[in-house]
Amino acid sequence: MYTSHEDIGYDFEDGPKDKKTLKPHPNIDGGWAWMMVLSSFFVHILIMGSQMALGVLNVEWLEEFHQSRGLTAWVSSLSMGITLIVGLGSGMAYLPAVVMVGRYFQKRRALAQGLSTTGTGFGTFLMTVLLKYLCAEYGWRNAMLIQGAVSLNLCVCGALMRPLSPGKNPNDPGDRDLSVLPAHSTESVKSTGQQGRTEEKDGGPGNEETLCDLQAQECSDQAGHRKNMCALRILKTVSWLTMRVRKGFEDWYSGYFGTASLFTNRMFVAFIFWALFAYSSFVIPFIHLPEIVNLYNLSEQNDVFPLTSIIAIVHIFGKVILGVIADLPCISVWNVFLLANFTLVLSIFILPLMHTYAGLAVICALIGFSSGYFSLMPVVTEDLVGIEHLANAYGIIICANGISALLGPPFAGWIYDITQKYDFSFYICGLLYMIGILFLLIQPCIRIIEQSRRKYMDGAHV
Questions:
Q1: Nearest partner of 292 among 365, 361, 346, 371, judged by Cα
Q2: Which of 44, 101, 373, 444 is an S-S bond match for 340, by CB 3.0 to 4.6 Å?
Q3: 182 in helix, strand or coil?
């Protein structure tokens, strides 16, 4: 969806010479903007927190259905993937919760996104504890019913979200008063009727039949006038809606398939390839760590403090700290983003080498902190495509993450079914993740080479 200046937080007002000037929207970086952060925070708790806690249910499904790891992991991966690809169910709440925070913030966007997305960490910790308790007390089927009832609070979060109020544009037919129409008013009809009665009275002796006829005619004229008014209002509204839908479709088509398409931006295309490989490295530990702990005979220690909870809690601090660092004027958001990615890749490679609870806890803490770069994804996406393309572009990135989340856990399960180890799945996912980062690093180099080549060719022609 493309946005205008009103959508990004500015109102238009008439100047002394009828020129359009911009004034900052009062809710930008303050006011209702912090309610948007709060709403997005709870959306992340209810959606992403529930998704990341599915490892608890994955163990229950393995014990009850006695199917392979690869086949069983499809249940969790489909839940995550459908949320981020298709937009069904909770996906219809997740993407707006991320985009709306970006619309309400300019100066402190990275910090706001960091605070709102910390709900993923809180939600993972809370939902993991809740699901463990519910599964032990009521069984996994009833636990899922209770979890679904809790998720109904997404309706409350949606009620808190509202678009920035646009400025009134006198040229927009939708902003004009529909009641101002070039038709006779009711008062004019009444006065006409009264005038007619007065003339009749003055001109000759009136009678009751004439007065009744005039009153009936006046009532029918008023009813017909009201019907015309309603018809005009309906036609005007339908015309305005048709124009808006047509313009929205044209903007969507030109954005995805026109000459100014997002896919003509090679850096953005490289970012999509990165998203295809990155998210699975973060999702796989949440789905398979509960079983890995059982394989290493560390269940007692993990029950005291689950490893997935360590990732979730440190993930909270990682998002806030990385968001604050990225907002510093002397720091590049891209440098913070890439450094966090390299740390996460290194942690994925080291994880299979740890077979003690303490070692796994340290690596899980690194995974949690470095994965805090997710709060920077809307910021770097905007840096690539601009605020006017943010909704479309971020939707594409989320879709790529959904494909990664959809295929990652079953892939790790298949590797275990073949090798009887999870080690190779982490190595392969880490390698693919590194390839995705290389896509991001190569594109600026190609751009520099092309610029140098153009300068050389221009100098040669001179």
A1: 361
A2: 373
A3: coil
